[in-house]
Amino acid sequence: MIFSFDLLFEAVLFGVLLGCFYAAVSIGLSVSFGLLDVPHVAHPALMVFGSYCTYIVAGYGLDPVLAGIILMPAFFVLGVLVYRFYYETFEKRGTEAAVRGLAFFFGLAFIIEVGLILMFGVDQRTVEAAYIGSSLELGDYRIPYRMLVAFGVALVLTIVLTLYLSKTFTGRAIKAVAQDEPALRLMGANPVRIKQWAFGIATGVSALAGAMLIIVGPVEPAMDRLYIGRTFCVVVLAGLGSMTGTLAAGLILGISESIVLMLLGASWAPAVAFGLLLIVLGIRPQGLFGR
Amino acid sequence: MTYWIGAALVFIAALGAALSPLNEYFFYAGYIVLTFIVLATAWNILGGYAGYVNFGTGAFFGLGSYSAVVLFKALEAPLAVQILAAAAVGAALGFAVGIMTLRLRGIFFAIATVAILFIMETLMVNWRYVGGATGLQLLRPEVMAPFATYTRMLFVVMAFLAVLAVSLARYVQVSWIGRGLRAIRDSEEAAECSGVPTLRLKLFACVVSGALMGAAGAPMPMYLSFIEPASSFSLNWGVSALAMPMIGGTAHWIGPVIGALLLGSIQQIVTVTISNEINVLVVGVLLVLFVVLAPDGIVGLFRKLVKRR
Questions:
Q1: Is residue A99 part of a domain?
Q2: Core-most of A224, A243, A260, B308, by most CB within 10 Å?
């Protein structure tokens, strides 16, 4: 491989687009795991489920982004139900049930994955849209439009969620529950209802993230395994629950993955997210912008 | 004493079966069930007793398989040497994982083990000597004297490993080590304050668990006459090794054995009649059902039944 600054620039450019996409697929986890401390290993599986739902809805001739937005309320309700169930069965019983809670989400991820395999088979699925398959030509550089769309949606999603959490009353309540739950209880608020709401939002966002996943590339049921590494890497690197941190961490992951892709080839790419995750866990578990 | 007589009888029964003219398929399926007994028991030493959830069973198992293949390819080492080397490599990885428990607990530890799994897989995918992503065909050596086929021999070897693993787990459970590990699970701070050597015990549990998982992986390439990274390092090993103790019961050494026998047998029946995906689905559904409805597994259900009488 001949190294050149041209190639490096292209890799960084692609990395920035990829990074924003990674931030967007991780932001739901940043709320559910980062803020609420739910060991949500099934987040990537739910997201891939969102991709397949998008695939079905977009099959009626809708734009995939629009399909993702339409799916958000349904996923919100799903999230509320999942949290409610998790709370009643595990969280309420304290640390004694923590191991079982973790095992529950791990099992859930496998059930979703196999369910998708049984319904759709192991083949890859894609969606159709005007911007998929064509590229924006800027001089010597070619940027696929689908990456630009994902980049745009990701950016909007991150900004909206950041504003929601810092400016609105409910958003601040969610942050308060993350900081000090007993205090919130003393103030007369019901932390479980706030967490339920927040988990619903986190899951609703994964529907849109799933839509972007299938816009960026073909989707297959076992894809969630790779994304366990990417999403947890971004959330931990960001520092649990930090929204701006999520964007920064996504960019770091995106650019490193893209550079490794250029220098060493595709077979090394999966190790980037997991390697970065291990390094962060080993050196600075509180992340870059940790609370 | 009764335990040791029982363990010896189980092994003799396995040996006797292997020398009898029983259908070959029994050994083919039985080998996998025995592998799961080793993996589930090994998982339980760290996950059940100490409460550190390991999702990366496949990392130890796959590394054991690859150690065996490298030794076989380079030196034509006999199976016993392969297994010992795989156990040593598994123990070394276990030690590294044990060091991680210094800083990581709960989900952080679990996710770190997933990371190790995928990094191992990527390393093997990129290692040409062992066949890279496409894998490697292996030619089995001649079978040793009293056994009619190679699968029968592997069955006996794995039966020995299973008895060894269960005995080790039982020893850990009834000795002071097990009490220490349970104290760590309930509250690591309190254990540390009461003078439990937490780091030493956690390292011990990780090393023993890793060595057993590595050893369980060593005969696998010979069993399949083939090795490839994707199935060796699959996350499916992790979910099975976690589900079996959870279903059987994590508090007692017999729990993982019951879980592995039950789930392993169901899997073998399902694989024959339906497909591989249903296999994983059965594991997932039973795991979720048990952690929700029967937190202490089959052993817990049984105890409740006895108490009521």
A1: yes
A2: A224
With a CB-CB cutoff of 8 Å, which residues 163-202 of chain A face chain B? Answer: none
Residue B238, both tokens: 């992790």
- Report the alpha-carbon angle A268-A272-A276, nearest 5: 155
pTM, two decimals, is 0.91
Nearest by CB to residue B133, choosing from A97, A267, A277, is A267
Q: Is position A3 within any domain?
A: no
Residue A214 Cα distances to A14, A124, A184, B47, angstroms: 18, 10, 39, 36
- Chain B partners within 8 Å of A103 (Cβ): 53, 242-243, 246, 287, 291
Q: What is the pLDDT along chain B (309 residues), one digit of tens a residue?
A: 788 898 889 898 888 888 888 888 888 889 999 999 999 999 999 988 988 999 999 999 999 999 999 999 888 888 899 999 999 999 999 999 988 877 888 888 999 999 999 999 999 999 888 888 888 888 888 777 788 888 888 999 999 999 999 999 999 999 999 999 999 888 888 888 888 888 899 999 999 999 999 999 999 998 988 898 988 898 889 999 999 999 998 888 999 999 999 998 888 888 777 667 788 888 899 999 998 888 888 988 888 888 876
Q: Which two tokens stand for residue B181?
A: 């590990």
- Rounded to whole angstroms, how far apart are CA atoms A186 and A149? 45
Tally of domains within chain A: 1
Contact across the interface for B242 and A103, Cβ inside 8 Å:
yes
B55 touches chain A (CB under 8 A): yes
Q: What b/e sequence results for B293-305 when a residue is b if at least 16 CB atoms lie within 10 Å of its CB, and e otherwise? A: ebbbbbbbeeeee
Q: How far is CA A264 from the centre of its chain?
A: 26
Pairing of strands B226-227, A135-138: unpaired
Is A286 contained in some domain?
no
CB B49 within 8 A of CB B202: no
Range of the domain at A165: 30-225
Question: Least CB-CB distance to B291: which of A33, A103, A113?
Answer: A103
Token pair for A73: 């309320």
**Domain ranges within chain B, ordered by starting residue:** 23-235
With CB atoms and an 8 Å threshold, state whether B111 touches A270: no
Q: CB-CB: which of A33, A236, A274 is closest to B119?
A: A274
Q: What is the dihedral of CA A219, A228, A79, A74, to 10 degrees?
A: -10
